[in-house]
Structure formats: structure tokens, C-alpha cells
């Protein structure tokens, strides 16, 4: 269990760094979603089920959809 | 005369609010340190006092219900600002949605998502979850309608007026239960004693399930309004 | 002494893990978008379903097993649909150009669709 937590923490940091470093917004959003997913499993590992549910629903679901719609709006403005 | 009257009313309201806040802050307990402070008290006697198996829900909607009221007010402010900037008077320019396969499959799955959100909201005092999480799952249905079936479908099924009505009903449920707490128990948002039942059943834990339903309706409708007003002139005809 | 139930559940779980490995190999080795999507669809449709079935047999209580099997059925519904949507979107956004392929049945289908509309 200790090893699993350590691996998840490493991937969490990697996902956060990737989300910051990429230039394209779409890939950054995908990495933010992955970040939320890893954070959800970490919360679940620490037996905080309420926070895990909130993080999964808001971080991985709703934030991605809202960011995607905002990004597509920006793209339309650029191309037109 | 009219302006003077308004000023005097505002001053009187502020003075009354100040007195009410002062009286309330007088009632707060002194700080005792983390060991024998409030968290230890809640862990020991939270179940017997509120009847809620999920202690987090007991803290959120009973001990700290006033903070939750503030949070839902923050969501109301966010919805108001976004709707004010991205006006929803404009008619939706809708896409045709995704392909037939995706539409049919989500037609099968979407009722189960609605069922799951209702489960999470109504069982907030028994299992992990609660009004906020269930409300966001409820908003996900509106997002699915907007993306998969096109936002005109979402406009037909859940029009913005209907979402506004849902949000208002949720906020009024929360406030009404708070005011009922004043009249029946003596404090704002106090847990209503006559609603308690055997611990562990669905309708127990006083007013917590009803506050959960109010918060769920409010959060779900509010986030759906945010997404709808962001998407409505976004997706155009493609392919 | 291992009972037959545990043997079956371990067999299902190891088969699921093997298919997950196949997915990773495919994502690394395949050349372009559509073949990679084809490889990536395996991980939930086969591997996830097999692992949930193995878990359901491993715990062997009625309500827990039923919940896990329901999660598996949800995977079985949702993942092919998501794969289909991703492939269609990558076709319509010209991420992989259709001229690179010898057989392009979908564009013929779309052209037939346009002819039917106009």
C-alpha cells in the first residue's frame, strides 16, 4: 500500500508539471483531468470518500467540460 | 424626504444586524486547543446528536450549516455574474450533436445517471456524498444533453426558466428550514427535532436530508445554467 | 488448498492484466491515430470487464458482487461509444488524413449521405 501511494504521488507531480509546461491548452486540460483522477484515487486510499467523490465529479468531470467549452470559444474567435 | 427615509432605513438595518451578530458571537465557546476542541466533541457525540451516520454531512448541514448557506450564496453569485456577462437572451446556435450510436447509448445511460444523482443526494446522511456532489452529477445530465444532442435539445427539455425555478426552490428550501429552526428550536438552521427517526433509515437525521435536497437542486441547476450560458453560441454546424 | 472459486477469479484477473499489457504495447507500437484508438479500446472493454468479473467472483457477497458487475456493464456500454466518438471526431477534424489510406469507406458513406440530403 505504501508503494502504491508513492507511485501515485510521483504521477501526481508529473501530471501537474505536464499541465503547466505544455503550450497547447487542450493537452493541458487533459492533464488537469488526469491530475484530478490521480488525486481522487489518493483520497480514496486515505479513506476520505466524500472528498474523493467531490473531486471526481468536479475536477475530472465538470471542470473539463467547462474548460473545453471556453477553449473552443477562444478558438472560434481566433479563426473567425 | 424619500432619500432620507432610505438612508435611515439602511442605518437601522445595519445597527440591528450588528446587534444580532454581537449577540451571536457572545454565544461562541472559547478556544480549548485541538485535543479537547470541537473536532473531538463532534466525533464523540455527533451521531447521537444529529442521527446522521455520515459525520461529514452532519458537520456540513447541521453544525456548520450557516457556512454551507454562504457557499451556496457564492454559487448564486457566480451564476448571476456569468449569466450577466454571457447573455442568455440570444437564441441558441446548436450543433446537430454527435452520431446516432452515441445518442442511442446515452439515451440508455442517462436515466441511470439521474438515478445515481438522486441516490447520492437522498442518501447523503448515510453514505458518502451529499447535496453538493449529487447536484454536480445532476448538472452533468444537462452537459450531456448540450454536447451530445445539441444545445437546442437542452433548451427544449430543460429551459433556462425551469432551471431558474429549480435553483430558487432549492435556495428557498434551505432558507425555509433555517427559519423553521428559529421558530421551533430557537436557533437559525437548528436541526428540527420532530423529524428525527431511527438511526440508519432513509428518513432520519432531522432536517439534514431536506437541506441536502435543497442544496442539490440549487447546485445542479446553477452549474447547468453556467454551462448552458457558456455553450449556447459556441458550437456551430460541423462536418 | 485453493478453492475453485479463487482459481477462476485469479484466472480472470490475470487475463485482464494481460490484455492491459497488450493495450500498452499497442499504444506504443502502432503507427497512427486509428490503430492506436483500436488498441486503446481494449483496456476497458475487455480488461476492465474481466477484472470486475474476477473481483465479483473473489468477494462473493451478493450486493458487493452485484455492484461490481454493474460497474462492469457500465464499462461495456460506455467505452465502445467513447471510442467511436473519438474516432469520428478525429476523422472530421482531419487529424489523420483519409488520403493516406487505401480503403476509406466512411468518406464514401458521407458522400452518399450528402447526395441523399441534397
Structure explained in plain terms:
Chain A has about 80 residues and is mainly α. Chain A has one domain (about 1-80). Chain A has three helices and no strands. Chain B is mainly α. Chain B has one domain (about 55-230). Helix content of chain B is about 70%, strand content about 0%. Chain B is built from nine helices and no strands. Chain B has helices spanning about 1-25, 40-50, 55-65, 65-85, 100-120, 130-150, 150-155, 160-185, 210-230. The longest helix of chain B has 26 residues, at about 160-185. The model of chain B is unreliable at about 235-239 (pLDDT under 50). In chain C, about 80% of the residues lie in helices and about 0% in strands. Chain C has five helices and no strands. The interface of A and B includes residues 49, 53, 54, 62 and 69 of A.
Features:
heterotrimer; B: 239 residues; mainly alpha; disordered C terminus; C: 118 residues; 81% helix
Task: Write a concise synopsis of the structure shown.
The complex is a heterotrimer of chains A (80), B (239) and C (118). In chain B, 69% of the residues lie in helices and 0% in strands.
What's the gyration radius of chain A in Å?
15 Å
Q: Major beta sheet of chain A, specifics?
A: none
How many domains, in number, for the residues of chain C? 1
Low-confidence parts of chain C, pLDDT < 50 over ≥5 residues? none
Secondary structure elements and their pairing?
The complex is a heterotrimer of chains A (80), B (239) and C (118).
Chain A: H1 2-21, H2 25-45, H3 49-79
Helix pairs in contact in A: 1-2, 2-3
Chain B: H1 2-26, H2 38-50, H3 55-63, H4 65-85, H5 100-122, H6 131-148, H7 151-157, H8 160-185, H9 208-231
Helix pairs in contact in B: 2-3, 3-4, 4-9, 5-6, 6-7, 6-9, 8-9
Chain C: H1 4-29, H2 33-40, H3 42-59, H4 62-92, H5 105-117
Amino acid at each position: 500500500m505504501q508503494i502504491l501511494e508513492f507511485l501515485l504521488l510521483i504521477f501526481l507531480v508529473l501530471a501537474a508539471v505536464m499541465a503547466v509546461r505544455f503550450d497547447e491548452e487542450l493537452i493541458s486540460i487533459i492533464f488537469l483531468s488526469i491530475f484530478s483522477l490521480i488525486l481522487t484515487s489518493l483520497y480514496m486510499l486515505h479513506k476520505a470518500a466524500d472528498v474523493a467523490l467531490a473531486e471526481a465529479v468536479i475536477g475530472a468531470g465538470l471542470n473539463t467540460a467547462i474548460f473545453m467549452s471556453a477553449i473552443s470559444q477562444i478558438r472560434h474567435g481566433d479563426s473567425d | 424626504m424619500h432619500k432620507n427615509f432610505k438612508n435611515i432605513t439602511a442605518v437601522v438595518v445595519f445597527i440591528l444586524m450588528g446587534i444580532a451578530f454581537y449577540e451571536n458571537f457572545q454565544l461562541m465557546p472559547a478556544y480549548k486547543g485541538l485535543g479537547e476542541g470541537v473536532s473531538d466533541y463532534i466525533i464523540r457525540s455527533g451521531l447521537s446528536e444529529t442521527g446522521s451516520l455520515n459525520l461529514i454531512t452532519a458537520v456540513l448541514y447541521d453544525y456548520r450549516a450557516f457556512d454551507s448557506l454562504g457557499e451556496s450564496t457564492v454559487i448564486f453569485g457566480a451564476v448571476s455574474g456569468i449569466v450577466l456577462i454571457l447573455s442568455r437572451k440570444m437564441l441558441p446556435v446548436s450543433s446537430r450533436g454527435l452520431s446516432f450510436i452515441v445518442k442511442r447509448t446515452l439515451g440508455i445511460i442517462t436515466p441511470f445517471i439521474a438515478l445515481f444523482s438522486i441516490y447520492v443526494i437522498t442518501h447523503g446522511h448515510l453514505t458518502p456524498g451529499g447535496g453538493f456532489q449529487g447536484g454536480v452529477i445532476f448538472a452533468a445530465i444537462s452537459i450531456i444533453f448540450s454536447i451530445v444532442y445539441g444545445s437546442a435539445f437542452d433548451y427544449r427539455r430543460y429551459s433556462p426558466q425551469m432551471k431558474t425555478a429549480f435553483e430558487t426552490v432549492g435556495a428557498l428550501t434551505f432558507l425555509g428550514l433555517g427559519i423553521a429552526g428559529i421558530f421551533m428550536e430557537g436557533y437559525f438552521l437548528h436541526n428540527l427535532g420532530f423529524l428525527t427517526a431511527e438511526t440508519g433509515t432513509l428518513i432520519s437525521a432531522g432536517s439534514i436530508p431536506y437541506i441536502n435536497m435543497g442544496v442539490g437542486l440549487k447546485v445542479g441547476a446553477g452549474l447547468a445554467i453556467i454551462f448552458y450560458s457558456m455553450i449556447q453560441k459556441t458550437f456551430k454546424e460541423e462536418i | 488448498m485453493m478453492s475453485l472459486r479463487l482459481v477462476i477469479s485469479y484466472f480472470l484477473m490475470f487475463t485482464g492484466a494481460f490484455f492491459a499489457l497488450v493495450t500498452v504495447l499497442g499504444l506504443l507500437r502502432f503507427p497512427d491515430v486509428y490503430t492506436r484508438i483500436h488498441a486503446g479500446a481494449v483496456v476497458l472493454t475487455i480488461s476492465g470487464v474481466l477484472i470486475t468479473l474476477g473481483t465479483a467472483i473473489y468477494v462473493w457477497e451478493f450486493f458487493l458482487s452485484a455492484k461490481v458487475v454493474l460497474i462492469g456493464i457500465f464499462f461495456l456500454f460506455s467505452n465502445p461509444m467513447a471510442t467511436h466518438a473519438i474516432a469520428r471526431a478525429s476523422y472530421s477534424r482531419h487529424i489523420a488524413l483519409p488520403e493516406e489510406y487505401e480503403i476509406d469507406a466512411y468518406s464514401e458513406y458521407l458522400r452518399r449521405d450528402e447526395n441523399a440530403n441534397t
